[in-house]
Amino acid sequence: MLTATAHSAELIATEIVVRAKARDGKFIGSSVGGAWVRIKDADSGKLLAEGLTEGGTGNTELIMSTPRERYKPIADAGTAAFKASLPLERPQLLTIEVLAPYIKRQARTLSQTQTWLVPGKPISGDGLVVEIPGMIVDLQSPGTHGYIPLAQAPYEIRANVVMMCGCIITPGGIWDGQKLEVSALINKDGRPYQSVPLQMGSTMNSFAAKFQPDSPGNYHVTVYAYDPKTGNTGVDQTAFVVTK
Fold first, then answer.
1. Which of 210, 222, 237, 94 is nearest to 152 (CA)?
2. For residue 84, which of 165, 186, 210, 237 sits 20 to 30 Å off, Cα-Cα?
């Protein structure tokens, strides 16, 4: 007669490396506050590990200009990553959530994927690379809830735009500001009012335009940056009051 023998499965520490990569950009690391990674059990939702990606954005030439060959890594030892070692007794389906860039709330995007992790079979090297769409748009002027006399018009609308990895945007550069569409959509007293294109300035990442209101009111400004080649888009908003 055969009898079942009780035994406890051995827990095997298994590494997983997670990286956040900006769409049409480099890796999201310490220079923009990192990406927050959450690793969960896919069935129960139990949190298994979490933390920030840390490190650099990676090698620009390798990531952006070198033709990609199968199995050739695009990350090196200094490239931003989050690493965890999970004690596994059986293959486990994981849900990976990535919030990035973590410190820029108005630009922060949640990207999610799933993967199996098998005991003793690490996901290392480049690891699990999660793409983060978007751009970081910081609307710098007008200031939020400012009260501005009509007599001081025209006002400057000014925004700072960078890739999600923090990579700079310049005229004619790798990330060419002259090929981006950056514009302000302006509402007055809750209704569409004007659309004002912003132009790339001489300062990196900087876009600006003049805005001339015709009367006092409550104004809401939405500035977007859009890359027509990739569809990559970022947005920021503000509101201010024009007084008599």
1. 210
2. 165
List domains and CATH numbers for the chain: 14-132 (2.60.40.10), 135-243 (2.60.40.10)
Phi, psi of 6 (to 5 degrees): -70, 140
DSSP bridge partners of 206: 160
- Spatial contact of 182 and 188, defined as CB atoms under 8 Å apart: no
Specify the pLDDT at position 8: 54
CA distance 70 to 72: 5
Residue 15's CB: how many other CB atoms inside 10 A?
Answer: 15
113-155 residue pLDDT tens: 999 999 999 999 999 999 999 999 999 999 999 999 999 999 9
From residue 175, give the alpha-carbon distance in Å to each of 128, 178, 239: 25, 9, 29
Residue 11's SS3 state is coil
Do the beta carbons of residue 169 and residue 138 sit within 8 Å? no
Q: How many helices (H) and strands (E) does the chain have?
A: 1, 16
